[in-house]
Design brief:
CATH superfamily of the largest domain in chain A: Periplasmic binding protein-like II
Strand content of chain B: under 5%
CATH topology of chain B: MetI-like fold
Strand order of the largest sheet of chain A: 8-9-10-1-11-21-12
Largest sheet of chain B: none
Structural class of chain B: mainly alpha
Mean pLDDT of chain B: 86
Number of strands of chain B: 0
Helix content of chain B: 55-70%
Oligomer: heterodimer
Distance between the termini of chain B: 45 Å
Number of domains of chain B: 1
Number of domains of chain A: 2
Largest interface: A-B, 26 and 23 residues
Number of helices of chain B: 11
Shape of chain B: elongated
Radius of gyration of chain B: 23 Å
CATH class of chain B: Mainly Alpha
CATH architecture of the largest domain in chain A: 3-Layer(aba) Sandwich
Chain lengths: ~525, ~290
Amino acid sequence: MTYHPRKGLAALLLAGSALIAPPALAQDSDTLVIARSMDVNSLDPSRAFCDTCQFYLTAVYETLVTLAPDNQSLVPNLAESWEVNDDFTEFTFMLKDATFADGSPVEASDVVWTFNRLKNVKGSPSFLMDGLTGAEAVDAKTVKFTVDAPNSEFLNKVSAPYTGIINAEVAEANGAVSDETAAEADKAEPWFLANSAGSGPFQLASYSPEAELRLARNDSYYGEAPAFSEVVVTQIQDAVSQAQALETGQVDIAMQIDPDTAQSIRSGDVTTEVIPSYNFVYIGFIPGAKGMDGKLTAEVRDALASAIDYDGMLDFTVGGNGEKQAAPIPNGFPGTAGLTPRSQDVEKAKKVLADAGLSDLKLVAGYPNDNVYGVDFNIMMQKVQQDFAAIGVELELKPLTWAVWRDELGAGEWPVTAIYYAPDYYGSGQYVAYFGMIEGFPWVGRASVGKPELVVNPAEADLYAKALASSGDDADAAYQELGEAMMEDAIIIPLVAPNLVLAYRNDIAGVRYSACCNLPLAEITRN
Amino acid sequence: MAMTSPDTAGFSPRRRFEGTRDIWRRLPITAKIGALMLLFWILTVLTVSFWPLADPLAMVGRRLQPPSTANWLGTDALGRDVFARTMYGAVWSIPIAVVVVACAVLIGSTLGALAGFFGGWSDSIIMRLVDVTVSFPPILLAMAVAAVLGPGLANASIAMVIVWWPIYARLMRAQVLEKRENEHVEAAVAGGAGSLRVLGVHILPLCWAPTLINATMDFGQVVLLAASLSFIGLGATPPSPEWGSMISEGATKFYSWWIAFGPGMAILSVVLATSFLGDGLRDVFDRRSA
């Protein structure tokens, strides 16, 4: 290639003029522009697992059932009706007449193929299909699922965006496999980065990692057409830059503005709403960590939890824009109504530690050095450090990169950590499945580091089975007992449930927060 | 007839030494300002615990308050006094820079002098090691080393020494190569002096000026690199009031500009001071490149 100085100069001038051109990119157009720091791990529905994936998959693929705007009740999506047997082991869905973007009908065989692939490909969201023993196409429009044990939450799981139905024929033609060999034989993940095969109102137009995710309207959509012909998710890293892009009109919606930054927005063209979210940040105790030797008993963990100034925490991490949370189940989910959040009790904490002979306890906290849902983990952990110091416990802080954090967590390098969690669907069972002190569950492994007897709470397994075998008030009561049991475990100590800021230009309507799907793009319009 | 060693006649290294007062007189005004600014920070490091400042780790007021008469540079996200933290920050940043520069000078100069004086395979090995090290971008190498060792100021310091020593090795090798050819050295060798004596007594005393100038200028750069490592989370761990980590905390609270302002100005003043002083010292000692 030869270098042409004149051309280079022209390009420079062009680039310069782009900088000074009026930034009226978004307004009055048929394109919706969204600012977001994207965390995409994959765009393959069976392998993706991220907050960006939630709303991308919702726009492009459709689930059998979905969550109503009340964030609690399930409403028809691809399935027009469904039946559940009395002991919650068989689920039958009747499909409506829908078509994929290529015009072919959505049939029971596609649904069976999709669920089998999700289970067999062993990707990040495959755990949702744990316990699924059979998926069967009864006829072209009827699907029956069977699970190995009563599971009243299976229906809710089916609203998670990762269960969006894929056009089996198109996907198979591009290397996708759904049978038991899928974990190795399926080679379709790269194809899904450039193409989509769903029945949703949008299709994937293009994706460039760390830069832009572009969706185009599905012109042959069988339902009501979305208001925008194009949706562009543009990578903007931090809250302040997102707020500036929103104020200048470069973007229509900014997805990750924290409450402090929202307060500093002065433009009259921007609407901000602060709403409760189902996300929370927590510290976790790891009694099996190196050097602990049985020091972190349930009483000691409870005493440490009593040292924390939860009101102050709320103020320091999110400026008061959040809620306290009792158990590791978000406020508003089944079984949480009767739970009382912990409160600070310094005298009790001191006494318990003195009785246990641990008045000069030294702990180390390893945590990812990150800012999630507006909470700066460094600030949060410095507050914990101050609160622990007040009862004579010295906490050393180790902010880590994600990769190092994961390694050291697995090895039990430190007895305290901090991390966050967001729901994938409406239902409390997913929290028990993750945080419950039941043999074989993820947090038992993390907290015990190979010595499950340190933390396992035998009562919880029975309660969990009871909750999954019942529904309505009975299930709520069982989840409340589980919540109380998990509070007594004092392994997971929720610190803050941060509020979420919906920030958008005044001419945009229909922006809402969904517990399954994050931001439903098809509902957004421009006035 | 008594043999007189030729190096006592016209080539005594001591003649190159000049009185401190003489050096001060010949320094340009900018260098004097730089020296005073550096002196201020050194005095701060030594005496800050006696100053009537707020506790840099304690909450003293509401969070994110703008500058006021009570908190001259406002409060940060945990309600701590930013001015007090900035002043205490010197206790972390300045000694680290001293240690890192001293270690880099010691290791680099020793290896460089050996390479330059003995030549041959020792020269090849040492200088290839230097080439390999400097072929990495410094910040990247420091990040990699700090990431492997884990966060913490001690590890960050080791990382910075690893990045910095090759500069002094090259500098010292070039000096030794040049001075080795001087007649007084040949005379010393002819007079039967051992290798180490020739190197230590007859060559090294003539080589320290460029190293001193470079070390002065690097001092500020090391403060900057330490702050950069802390900024990305590989240096000081919370809650230590290190300048880089303070700026990092301020970056997420952008509209509360005062959180990053204090440590930012502190870093600026140290880097500026050492650049001024280094430039001035070069004017005095190293007239060729002035």
